[in-house]
Target: MutS-like protein
Amino acid sequence: MFLTDDQTIEDLRLFAKRERTGIYDIYNNTSTRGGEILLGNMFRNPLSDLQAITKRSTAISAFARLQTAFPFNPGLLDSVEKYILQDEVNHTQKGVLGEKEISAGVTALIELLHAIRNFLESGSIVQVPMLDEERKETLQILLHASLEPIFREKPGHKLSFGALTAFDVLLRMKEREKVMEVLNFIYLLDVYISVAQVANKRKFVFPVAYSKGSNVLKVEGVYHPELKNPVANDLHMHTGKSVVFLTGANMAGKSTFLRSFSTAVYVAHMGFPVAAQRLEFSVMDGVLTTINLPDNLGIGASHFYAEVLRVKKVATELHAGKSLFVLFDELFRGTNVKDAHEGTVAVTKAFAGKKDSLFLISSHIVEAGDELKQKNNIGFHFLPTRMNGTVPEYTYTLQEGITDDRHGMIIIHNEGILETLKNGRKS
Model:
């Protein structure tokens, strides 16, 4: 089971919240309610098994290559869901559907079962070998003797009252389990085809996954998929550089890069295509990020104590032998500079000793870099600020080394803060 948590899901903004959309919305081109729900579950539960990741990724990339369109009428599926899932959709008791609803539901379901059988026998899925087992299993269900009367009927054919009643009992009661298995496979197809279409439209790349323990994370041209004009970056992590210490000014783009990079790592573990030119990664046991850590007011915890608890959680999981991708943005920002410096150095050095995991740590405390250079598996990168006269300009392009930018006071002067405090703002 892949280890992640609500903090990481919120940090990466995977789901929409009030004024902003989420990464989920970018991938959600589904045609069914069941597909939407399944996609959400996949976002909450990435995979930690190489075979499962490769299977999903290969299936989706096949649909992308074939440019497969969702082969079923969404309106038809909507009618089927209202009929067969009436308890969940309408919060009603079983058996209270009226004659009109039963007629519409049975007619739609018969038409859908014919359509899915045709697709499984001769549609583009035949050219997707990674789904061959599931395709044959679903066909077996459809060809079961109990469902034979369905395929003696012509889709769209008007049924007598007696036939409607018999089919209703058969589909909604006697063989409901078989119908649900077929529906669930349609939802899986909906998700895979949806994500394949997104990959084609946005030119996302399918990552290459390696077995656990190889400790490789090579990302080229990664960018944040929500940005209109993103700046792409490269970063290569491995056993010899299992920790990256990132520095840069406040507006230099650190948080955007951290989100871009860690989102790509997270989504790659779902077996989905990512916003990059290339991504190679060793399968990890989990991803834990700390970008926007709230104060835990419920237990009276300060921001610093919340950070300490977060580091403790990571340490506990590492001690349990898990291989993790860990990200901390501005480690120990909630305390004084001296403690933050000492804490950053101590914790980052300790992370460097866990060479089966990968760590991305950003900090304003550039002085910590000198002490961290003692560890040969810590790499140093920064996002530069260039001065055009007294105006800072940001390239958003990752460079090796530690920043020596000291432009805070220039920005304070540019904004006229000290003059305003001394003389008051001119009208």
